[in-house]
Amino acid sequence: MVVKWKDYVYANENPTPTWKLVHYLDQTFTGISQMLFIENPVIGVGIASALIVANPPGGLAVIAGSALATLWSNLLKLDTGLTRSGLYCFNSILVVAALNAFVTPLPAVVAMSIVGSLASVWLFDKGVKLLPFPVVSIPFIMVAQLSLLASRSFPSLSAIQFAPPPPVDITMFPEFLPWLSYIASTVPLTFSQLFFTANTWVGVAIIAAGFLGDRRVMSSAVLGAAIGTSVGYFLGYDVANGLWGFNSALTAMALYPTFGLPLWGALTAAGLSAALQPIALTIFGNAGLPALSFSFCLCTITFLRLYQKIRNQHK
User: Fold this and answer.
1) What is the pTM of this model?
2) What is the DSSP letter of 36?
3) Least enclosed by CB within 10 Å: which of 136, 256, 281, 302?
4) What is the pLDDT of residues 69-78, one digit of tens each?
């Protein structure tokens, strides 16, 4: 009989302080792996290590976001299964990493991260209980945007001001061969950008860790990132920073292996999430805000609801 890691870790109903620390670390690093829709603390340790080496402040922000969410979910005695699976950490990591990337000075980032993490955990818990569709990253969008708006009210704080994307010349169709090189160079960047770090080698390490954890998840994610980057490239936008694959990779990972859509449906949704990105960038950019994961939420929820409706009609 094979004993699974979590069965072993949580076997004792009255753990000692040492085992409680093991529980806490397990949940924290499992939460980091959930950024790739994988439930494996070893993968989380690998991702965190790569981020710390390449971008210490960004790596610490990711670990802090997951550790804070784990703390809140335990203190508030929220759903045990969600806590152990690290799902409360997903939005908290995104919130803290975004604040670290967009706001200064550091004391303000720390204070806003503590409050923002708590808010994201609470919103996720309420969303799971009340919404008829997956919460995905809705708490992240709400908390991060409100935090960035609030930061403008304090003269001592500085937050990046975002703008709508520049217009593109749609009559100039990009060449084919440069597209292939863009795919090769920007897809790894996409996976580092999931953690608000722009580093190709970190992206390669994250992809490798993901394949060790779940090949189906990472195969769909890489295809999604490639499709999203391609859509941005052929629409005429600059895709060199890897951000055009951000929402597409998340959409593909969520819909195919996690929620059970066919691969072609998940990749269609991934492409649409990239096609909607100029609209999202324009809407939020006019308010000086980033679009974040808006198109990921919209496409994932919409396609999942349509898929469930079609399946119910054919039962």
Assistant:
1) 0.92
2) G
3) 302
4) 999 999 999 9
